[in-house]
């Protein structure tokens, strides 16, 4: 990007930024007359600069319109070099704070709530990602007797997550058998990875269980499947209906393909996980996406870190004509509060990276949202 930046004059940068901002707000091609209101140049000069930006690949001219729209390359330069800080209102910050602190104790719930907030605050489709986890071991087992042959197996993983399985077996085990099973699992199985469950270990456990040794084989199968299950990752998408508000998704076949990708999730989850490994605060624009159905969209995400390790990500999906400043600032604010909830001691919203403005009235928020929605749909 440094090579591109050295090519563009300050005036070209100013014009490109103004075109992106105007196109995001209104959805229509931007002409020189609109830019003259912001840039102290003649109409002829602005037209010449726009023509050169088009030749360089930063702008496109749809159909025979006199105006231009940003290209993928233009959006990329905007995100990397021109986007300005978006000042969140006190009302938006309070909405984040209240929603994230409302009786949430598990990461899944926090991330899902955060993705819904991201969707509501930006008017794009939100998502929450729990990435493929490292290999987990179980630090503690508990077994809760329900009825003969039936009990609940509780597994506390070494990362603090909890998995429960309702076990029903054609065996006449009682409460004493179930209690002995939990003790045996804690003796032989804690701290082991799934691929460290060996036949000698199972034999030793069967001998320890004596007459209830038949419990071991089916229970170990359940434990093995549960430990492997946790490695697959998960993607939750919210606010898919918001896509319908944008003319970029008016083509039924394109929208169908995108909705299919969001429903299948696996390819999208792989794309986001891979991008997150390269950049914890990622912006994937158009054809940069490895999922072809996303080539008319932008994906913006923020990785959530706890104890120095990535434990998830939140983000939004929308058209290339996205309000990048607002999205980036909103995700920063959400991730900062999630870090606080998880004990990272991050700065409170309103400090450091997020600016509080005095635009707190409902009328102001509604007005700015209408400006963003402009000519959508």
**What's the name of the CATH homologous superfamily of the largest domain?**
GAF domain
CATH-assigned fold name of the largest domain: Beta-Lactamase
Query: Strand-residue fraction?
Result: 15-25%
Could you give a short account of the major beta sheet?
5 strands, antiparallel
Count the E strands.
Answer: 10
Number of helices: 14
Protein described:
By secondary structure, the chain is an alpha+beta fold. It folds into three domains: 2-82, Orthogonal Bundle (Arc Repressor Mutant, subunit A), CATH 1.10.10.10; 90-132 and 233-373, Beta-Lactamase (2-Layer Sandwich); 138-229. Helices cover 47% and strands 18% of the residues. It has 14 helices and ten strands. The protein has helices at residues 2-7, 10-26, 32-36, 43-56, 72-82, 90-101, 107-122, 175-188, 199-209, 216-229, 252-264, 266-278, 324-341, 362-373, and strands spanning 59-60, 69-70, 125-130, 138-147, 150-157, 162-168, 234-238, 281-285, 297-306, 309-319. The protein has a five-stranded antiparallel β-sheet, sandwiched between helices. It has a three-stranded antiparallel β-sheet with strand order 4-5-6. It has a two-stranded antiparallel sheet with strand order 1-2. A hairpin with an 8-residue loop joins β1 (59-60) and β2 (69-70). The longest helix is centred in the C-terminal third of the chain and has 18 residues, at 324-341. It is elongated, with a radius of gyration of 27 Å. Residues 344-377 have low confidence and may be disordered.
